[in-house]
Amino acid sequence: xxxxxxxxxxxxxxxxxxxxxxxxxxxxxxxxxxxxxxxxxxxxxxxxxxxxxxxxxxxxxxxxxxxxxxxxxxxxxxxxxxxxxxxxxxxxxxxxxxxxxxxxxxxxxxxxxxxxxxxxxxxxxxxxxxxxxxxxxxxxxxxxxxxxxxxxxxxxxxxxxxxxxxxxxxxxxxxxxxxxxxxxxxxxxxxxxxxxxxxxxxxxxxxxxxxxxxxxxxxxxxxxxxxxxxxx
Length: 232
Fold this sequence. Notes:
Blueprint (H helix, E strand, L loop, with lengths): L1 E5 L2 H5 L2 H13 L3 E3 L9 H5 L3 H14 L6 E3 L2 H15 L6 E3 H7 L12 E5 L2 H6 L4 H9 L3 E2 L15 H4 L1 H17 L4 E4 L2 H14 L4 E3 H6 L8
Parallel strand pairs: 1-2, 1-3, 3-4, 5-6, 5-7, 7-8
Helix pairs in contact: 10-11
């Protein structure tokens, strides 16, 4: 199956290893992966801030870059939500065939490599991925297939505090929410916290480095190289 891989802004600028790992996982699952060089952004930052005209201009770059002849796969729950649910309405076009990475790997019947044998991990659900896409079990099943033991994370569905522009407009609240999430992960006695959304990863990693918290790793990297194999 041919697929188109969308890096997203945060993936391209901050977590290129996670994008590369996502590509490797898709290829190992038997997919032919196209990386469209003209891709830029889905328009989500402007859209979330209420600037619909600016978001529409940016979203046009997505429309021009991606074909409707193959599924579009993203290692980001929030951008997948934007591209699947809001971008078509914004541009007044038919919906695209958009998939978050873990749900697409399950669609292909992929098995995760044994990269986490003996590891104890916790998983954080990002807001858009859980609530808008309804993806909860796929990342957990893949992590368990990779050999990891998953420990319950208290309120795994609770926001990490990033929330796009929320973290800029309400920095004190945002930081407190991140610290609560990291404390819950530490209390679970996990070796690392895994998330499938670059926004959550950036926010939680930043706080973990300041406070000495446990490592935070993108799902694609955790599956492809194990929790000790990336830049989390």
